[in-house]
Amino acid sequence: MIHTIAFYLFAAMVIASAMMVIFARNPVHSVMWLILSFFNAAGLMVLVGAEFIAMLLVIVYVGAVAVLFLFVVMMLDIDYAEMRAGFMRNMPLGLLIALILLAEIVLGIGAYRTGAIELGTPDGTGAAPLGASNIEAIGSLMFTRYVFLFEAAGIILLVAMIGAIVLTHLGSGPARGQQNVSRQNRRRPEEATRNVTPEIGKGIEL
Amino acid sequence: MDLQSSLQVVLPEIILAVAGVAMLMIAAFVGDKASRLVSIVGVSVLTAVAIITAFQMTGDTLGREAFGGQIRADAFAGFAKILAIVAAIVTLVVSPAFFERVAKMRAEFPILIVFAVLGMSIMVSARDLISFYVGLELNSLAAYVMASFLRDDDRSTEAGVKYFVLGGLASGILLFGMSLLYGFSGGTSYEAVRLAGMDGGSIGYVFGLTFVLVGLAFKISAVPFHMWTPDVYEGAPTPTTGFFATAPKVAAVAVLARITVEAFGSQLTAWQPIVITAALLSILWGALGAIGQTNIKRLLAYSSINNIGFLLIGLATGTLAGVSAMLVYLAIYVAMVAGSFVAVMMLKDADGMPVEDIDAIKGLSKTRPMIALALMMLMFSLAGIPPLFGFWGKFVVFQAAVQADLIILAAIGIAASVIGAYYYIKIVKLMYFDEPADVITGKSETSYGVVLAICALVISPLGYLLTIPLGDWADRAAAALTAFV
């Protein structure tokens, strides 16, 4: 009973906050609604017993992706009113694409249910240890069987980081507008100023 | 699974990873002043890894498995690894002088090469779709950065972006194919994929196989998935281009051979037409596209597309002899292409700036006789003209094709290689029979000369001394591949 109530609560909240993402006037508020919908989706994941995915949703999507969205929203100067105007104009196309996607899902699930798709049977090499929770099972596979690939994936991220720095770092030249205090202090008035008596009606040569 | 024995099997990879991080530390604390030092460290580490790999593969042809069969360090992986490492060493030796002239040498370049080699060695020894993909992506990410390394240069940036976008597309196609294969076979190991294909395989399985082959065709730039190659090869800095044309090609071709023979070995009828089509189109398009090119790097890009076609002929046979012939061709190809790119890097004007225009090499035999001689040998070898070693590569590949009853394929290949000979010989004609253009007057470093001399020596008729050991290693490598089928 409590399960059902929790499910409908979370599900309704996900849909409602997703609607608010689209309809909120202020883009920053949109991101906030998005975060709320992520939290509720995490709640749904806990209900189906996938607590690892629930934690990933909170840590990765709320913690990293949504914050990145916030930065982008704040930094880019986008006219959201105009974008929303386009939303109404493109509504028929959007509905059509939504319908096509729905039809694909229905057809795919239907074909799978009738047994028209012969999927392979799992060979069991990646099977989870019995009786372990989600997180334990994933952790024990990742750090035993897949430890080499896990580390290699870490090196991929390292290479991506090196690449980002190499391609954006401006080198070690002195930054523009750098201040040299001792040179400023050594400077005497006679080096920087000169007295001129310009003729009437004429400027001076600089 | 015994972790310790697994770690012994992946010792070369561990050394590469640790060395890469250590080189990064040197670079971080000393700065770009250390780039030559880091290059030297890189060359010595790669040499050490090559020696360890050679020891690993002399012992047991089948090698040993690591991490439950995700990695297998057999003779085939060893052959490809050593070839890729040799190509990487050539790049490391020639790159500092090239980048220092424009004051763009940074210590990260050799580090990226070491990580790229790490990715290649993972992918050639992978016997699992996941480890294959992880290795491929490590290699590709390093390559994207290397392509746009001269980031103030518009062409280099363009090359990097183009390579990144199309490489990403190829990875996506590859992953899509892999996910289909996984779904229809129930496992990610090549063994599981092979077993699922034994009973004919479902339509989804064949779709997955096709997508994987298309993704790999992108990576080896086989026609019709070659369109990025000329632009990227032209725009990227020349040492990077030389690297792209050798090491990652070796790794990708080796992976293609391994996946077709080990994972799709039971599905010969499904993949053979794809490989044959790609081979024929690559040979023809590589030969025809090169005619009329005015940039020598673009010309070499078409030449490498052309060569991929010949390599695929060996693979298309699907036999042990065919794979062995392909590996022999691959080894000779690396020597020819590495030599050609070093020779191109030695073409400099009076200010020491690189010259890429084909008209500039007119009369090179009078101004720079040694470069002209080496370039002539390389071009004749690429064209497959008999006294030179390039002929031997083409010979073994066509022999394997004829033995496997692919006589029409071999005949078209030989006819197309005559078209290819046209533009190779045109370069020789420009160098030896035209009036000097007097553009190429700049001096080059001794290291370039040494590398070029070694490459020229390998492809010279003296190279035939290598035919027996090379054929022997290639046979052992191919035997390791076909042992499980």
TrEMBL record, chain A:
Pfam families: Oxidored_q3. This is NADH-quinone oxidoreductase subunit J. The keyword S-adenosyl-L-methionine does not apply. Its EC number is 7.1.1.-. NDH-1 shuttles electrons from NADH, via FMN and iron-sulfur (Fe-S) centers, to quinones in the respiratory chain. Couples the redox reaction to proton translocation (for every two electrons transferred, four hydrogen ions are translocated across the cytoplasmic membrane), and thus conserves the redox energy in a proton gradient. It catalyses: a quinone + NADH + 5 H(+)(in) = a quinol + NAD(+) + 4 H(+)(out). It is found in: Cell membrane. The chain crosses the membrane at residues 6-24, 31-50, 56-81, 93-112, 146-167. Residues 173-206 are annotated as: Disordered. It comes from Blastomonas marina.
UniProtKB/TrEMBL annotation, chain B:
The chain crosses the membrane at residues 6-30, 37-55, 75-95, 107-124, 130-151, 163-184, 204-228, 240-259, 271-292, 299-321, 327-347, 371-392, 404-425, 446-466. It is found in: Cell membrane; Endomembrane system; Membrane. Keywords: Cell membrane, Membrane, NAD, Quinone, Translocase, Transmembrane, Transmembrane helix, Transport, Ubiquinone. It catalyses: a quinone + NADH + 5 H(+)(in) = a quinol + NAD(+) + 4 H(+)(out). Residues 126-420 form the NADH:quinone oxidoreductase/Mrp antiporter transmembrane domain. It is a multi-pass membrane protein. Its EC number is 7.1.1.-. PANTHER family: NADH DEHYDROGENASE. Belongs to the complex I subunit 2 family. NDH-1 shuttles electrons from NADH, via FMN and iron-sulfur (Fe-S) centers, to quinones in the respiratory chain. The immediate electron acceptor for the enzyme in this species is believed to be ubiquinone. Couples the redox reaction to proton translocation (for every two electrons transferred, four hydrogen ions are translocated across the cytoplasmic membrane), and thus conserves the redox energy in a proton gradient. NDH-1 is composed of 14 different subunits. Subunits NuoA, H, J, K, L, M, N constitute the membrane sector of the complex. This is NADH-quinone oxidoreductase subunit N. It comes from Blastomonas marina.
